[in-house]
Design brief:
two-stranded antiparallel sheet; extended; 2 strands; 5 helices; alpha+beta; 2 domains
């Protein structure tokens, strides 16, 4: 909520130990529902935000966005994919890989996407047949 984003930088020791975020975590209360089934996505996630002025905002979610029940749109997938591979996958390949993933059912041969995802093309393994 503080950054209005979640990305890899939020998973670093520096970020986790930042005073601003430590203070924010101290204001969060986690309530475990022992009466709910203990398997993945087995209950409703209830989020309640209470402001200092007494105003409250609440929302329930039965399934996470991106689950089978609430799949991502193509645009949502592409946006998240590009966000998380930036800096890992070369810029010139990011779009190509995203399109290949979005169109897996149309691929006649998986070798091209495997080459892109494993960097095999960088090692001279293309067209080995």
């Amino acid at each position: 909520m503080l950054d209005r984003d979640v990305n890899f930088s939020h998973l670093t020791p520096e970020f986790i130990s930042d005073a601003k975020f430590r203070e924010a975590r101290s204001k969060v209360k986690l309530v475990l529902h022992q009466d709910w089934p203990a398997h993945y996505n087995s209950g409703i996630a209830h989020v309640l935000v209470k402001l200092k002025n007494g105003k409250e905002f609440a929302m329930d979610r039965s399934y996470p966005i991106g689950s089978r029940e609430e799949p991502l749109t193509r645009e949502q997938f592409k946006s998240l994919y590009l966000k998380f591979v930036r800096g890992i996958v070369p810029e010139y390949q990011m779009e190509k890989i995203a399109e290949a993933i979005l169109n897996l059912e149309k691929l006649s041969d998986m070798e091209e996407i495997i080459d892109l995802l494993t960097f095999r093309h960088k090692m001279g393994f293309l067209n080995m047949s």
